[in-house]
Specification:
This protein is α/β, with parallel strands linked by helices. It has 4 domains: 199 residues, Rossmann fold, CATH 3.40.50; 191 residues, Dimethylsulfoxide Reductase, domain 2 (3-Layer(aba) Sandwich); 40 residues, no CATH class; 120 residues, Barwin-like endoglucanases (Beta Barrel), CATH 2.40.40.20. It contains 24 helices and 30 strands. A hairpin with a 2-residue loop joins strand 2 and strand 3. Helix 3 packs parallel to helix 19, helix 4 packs across helix 14 and helix 8 packs across helix 12. It starts with 16 loop residues before the first strand and ends with a helix. The structure holds ligand MGD (2 copies), iron/sulfur cluster (SF4) and molybdenum atom (MO). Molybdenum atom binds next to loops.
């Protein structure tokens, strides 16, 4: 039985509080207004004017306030003495002391790196910064990474290699409306960022041509002019094939290549292997469609290539992103007006979350932990000796894979991520989590990961705290407090400061976001993601500030890679367009290879995974939201009618999906929109329908991104026991 809703208390003004959505990286602006009802105060959500969403919100944002008062919400810390015991409510003091003890005992037994933290890209900049500092300074451990490794790491690695800088979009979102040609590769904004579609529609109304590369005919593809439908995991070959054709038809920009890039001759030679018929055989995309695509891309004055997880979440994801960047560079796009390559960051703070030190190899300001000068600067801000700082640790999946083993983490804090559902190969990950000496989880709800913990901490939610977020464009925004947090919950900032105090380093940690942001500004100063000139007041006055912004009199940098525009290029050793040592962007030779797992007799089909419109990520939040459950009550697997007929299943029938790692059951949703050799399933569901029990943890050698987007699967018609199916 659901309990009563929590009451809301607020001192918010009558006209409401301006803030941003708790969910995706679009960070739509919204106004939260308290309204008196007979049942108590409710918080009304309305879209607000802003340069990104212009008042628009999707159904997730609109329904977000429901979770503030949700009866399932955690409102007290929970502890237990053994994993087979039920949780009992505990005081904050007891819970934090237990965590400090769990971390300390593991470090005493197994060494410093045996205590670690797994973070999340939904946390504010202040929290992400504090998490990185906490692990390096209070634990002096190398063991920290976060869920952004499963999200942006391939695109980030490629952008850093090619441009010397990783900011997902190097231009404002609204520029999309000014481009003449836009190609989206493995990105489905119609479902994942619905209000962003206004910019695409505005472009098409101006006569722009849009192309979508996706194994499914998505809502985004349906709105476009050209759909390329490759076999999953073949985008790299497709990009090389398009560039081969561009060279053949003399459509490349030789002046741009000569002036702004290095490495072209080797790429040009390598492209010889990508003749059109071969690329058609690998990708399944007909040569005539490739011909049309390359003419469109090269034939306009303003062309954008936008990448998403479909191209990136592969064991060759970073090379795939590089292949599309090669195409963009050869066509002379990056730095030109309303042109360039970009990747659409996903989580609320997916951009800021990867800049301030949650990643195993990073320090704040996108500095590198292995760089002596970076260590010196950041240690100075932190008030510690640079030699005290650990060296880089291992990536997210590697950390999870080694939990509880020799050399692995033995005591872990998970903050703002539900890895028991969202990591690849989750059956194995859950087993590893169970093998830990100690597990603490901070969340709003008792997530599937929290269910495995020794201590669970109840976290504040977005509308209950202040902070900053960096959106999909690299624009730093203000998240504002609108209501009081319920008694008994605390912000992750306070949790980390409280733990640091119990570990003897309390003097170095603050728990209020303004103080932490002021410190973040100093720590990031002079780094690639330079926030030194960004103040909360400026964000307010200027509707967000784009980084890099090195000083308070600097305007911020909406558009990157334009000479002399303060975009970091000015600070490179020679003047140039890109913040690389020679000011030039770099081509990279990259070659197609098979997916880590290819279909065979035992597992004859391809499984790809991703998102549906009404649900978010591991589903902890959206599976508890009435409006979203009404829109999409349960999991389903998308399958072509021809394949369904061969398997003997029909619409609404039950399908058993099996891979070398595990199995899941879902209802069938017939769709002519998908390739007949491939099925698509969302990862938003748990229990029997945990699709990540099936996914392949093969990692990209550079980014350490797992291969979420393709593995080999066996499909069998098999009735689901009804109580499971409906539960
Ligand atoms: N509703 C909703 N919105 C969200 C989220 C959510 O969970 N739900 N999550 C947010 C986050 S964190 C992220 S990262 C973004 C993700 O946003 P997207 O990257 O747009 O989302 P996905 O659904 O993961 O993948 C996009 C598309 O890739 C296609 N695809 C699968 N395999 C391949 C392939 O091999 N090649 C190509 N070219 N395409 C392929 C899929 O069919 C899918 O349509 O969305 C954000 N917004
Ligand atoms: N098969 C497959 N798997 C995937 C993907 C895919 O495409 N296919 N995509 C991957 C991608 S791109 C991503 S980003 C990951 C996301 O995977 P997760 O990290 O699991 O994402 P969320 O469900 O957003 O998890 C956030 C958790 O933190 C809680 N939370 C929210 N805000 C806060 C806060 O401020 N503090 C605290 N303490 N808790 C909070 C939420 O209730 C939720 O339980 O999944 C990855 N997994
Ligand atoms: S598009 Fe993203 S930021 Fe905007 S309302 Fe929906 S979930 Fe929130
Ligand atoms: Mo993501």
């Amino acid at each position: 039985m659901p309990g009563p809703r929590l009451p809301i208390t607020t001192s918010a003004p009558e006209q409401g509080v301006a803030t941003h959505c708790p969910y995706c990286s679009l960070q739509c602006a919204m106004t939260l207004t308290p309204r008196e009802h007979d049942t108590g105060t409710v918080l009304e959500v309305a879209g607000a004017p802003f340069p990104t969403n212009r008042g628009g919100l999707c159904e997730k944002g609109l329904s977000a306030a429901e979770l503030l008062t949700h009866p399932d919400r955690l409102t007290t810390p929970l502890v237990r003495d053994a994993r087979d015991e039920p949780f009992r409510a505990a005081s904050w003091d007891e819970a934090l002391q237990r965590i400090a003890d769990g971390l300390t005992v593991a470090q005493e037994r197994y060494g410093r790196d045996a205590a670690g933290l797994f973070g999340g890209g939904g946390m504010t900049n202040e929290k992400a910064y504090q998490a990185g500092k906490f692990v390096r300074v209070a634990l002096r451990s190398a063991s920290i990474d976060y869920n952004g490794r499963f999200c942006m790491s391939s695109a980030a690695a490629a952008a850093t290699k090619a441009f010397g800088l990783d900011r997902g979009m190097p231009f404002p979102l609204a520029d999309i409306a000014r481009a003449d040609t836009v190609l989206l590769v493995g990105s489905n904004p119609a479902d994942v960022m619905p209000p962003a579609m206004r910019w695409f529609s505005a472009g098409r109304e101006r006569g722009a041509q849009h192309l979508v590369v996706d194994p499914r005919y998505t809502a985004t593809a349906a709105a476009a002019d050209v759909h390329l439908q490759p076999v999953p995991g073949t985008d790299l070959a497709l990009a090389n094939g398009l560039l081969h054709l561009a060279v053949k038809h003399r459509l490349i920009d030789t002046a741009y290549i000569a002036e702004r890039t290095t490495g072209w001759p080797a790429v040009r030679r390598a492209l010889r292997q990508y003749w059109p018929d071969r690329v058609e055989r690998i990708t399944g995309v007909p040569v005539r469609v490739m011909e049309r695509a390359v003419r469109l891309l090269a034939g306009s004055r303003a062309t954008m290539i936008l990448s998403g997880r479909g191209a990136e979440q592969h064991a060759k994801g970073s090379d795939t992103a590089l292949a599309w960047i090669n195409l963009a560079l050869a066509l002379g796009l990056p730095g030109r007006p309303y042109s360039g390559w970009a990747t659409m960051t996903g989580q609320g703070n997916g951009q800021g979350g990867r800049e301030h030190g949650q990643k195993a190899d990073q320090l704040p300001g996108y500095r590198m932990l292995a760089d002596p000068a970076a260590r010196e600067h950041v240690a100075g801000v932190w008030g510690v000796d640079p030699d005290e700082l650990p060296q880089p640790g291992v990536s997210a999946y590697e950390m999870l894979d080694r939990l509880g083993t020799d050399g692995g983490v033995r005591a872990l804090v998970v903050m703002a991520s539900n890895v028991a559902v969202s990591a690849p190969n989750t059956a194995h990950v859950r087993e590893r989590l169970r093998s830990l000496d100690f597990l603490a989880v901070s969340d709003i709800f008792l997530s599937e990961t929290a269910e495995l913990a020794d201590v669970v901490l109840p976290s504040t939610q977005w509308a209950e705290e202040d902070g900053t977020m960096t959106n999909v464009e690299g624009r730093v925004l203000r998240r504002r407090r609108a209501v009081d947090a319920p008694d008994g919950v605390r912000s992750d900032l306070a949790v980390l400061a409280g733990l640091a105090a119990r570990l003897g380093r309390g003097d170095l940690f603050a728990d209020d976001p303004r103080t932490v942001f002021a410190e973040l500004r100093r720590a990031s100063a002079g780094g690639k993601a330079d926030y030194a000139g960004i103040t909360w007041e400026r964000i307010e006055a200027e509707r967000g500030v784009f980084w890099p912004c090195p000083s308070e009199d600097h305007p911020g940098t909406p558009r990157l890679f334009r000479e002399g525009r303060g975009d970091g290029a000015e600070r490179s050793s020679t003047q140039g367009y890109f913040p690389t040592p020679d000011g030039r962007a770099r081509f990279h030779v990259v070659h197609h290879r098979d997916a880590a797992e290819m279909p065979d007799d035992a597992y004859p089909y391809r499984l790809t995974t991703g998102r549906s419109r009404a649900h978010y990520q591991s589903g902890t939040q959206t599976r508890r939201t009435k409006a979203l459950l009404d829109a999409e009550p349960g999991p389903s697997v998308e399958i072509h009618p021809d394949l369904a007929a061969r398997l003997g299943v029909d619409e609404g029938g039950d399908l058993l999906l099996r891979t070398r790692r595990g199995e899941a059951r879902m209802r069938v949703r017939l769709s002519r929109a998908i390739r007949p050799d491939t099925v698509f399933a969302p990862f938003h569901w748990s229990g029997d329908a945990t699709i990540n029990d099936l996914t392949n943890p093969a990692l990209d050698p550079v980014s350490r991104m797992p291969e979420f987007k393709t593995c080999a699967v066996e499909l069998t018609a098999a009735p689901i026991p009804r109580e499971d199916a409906d539960g």
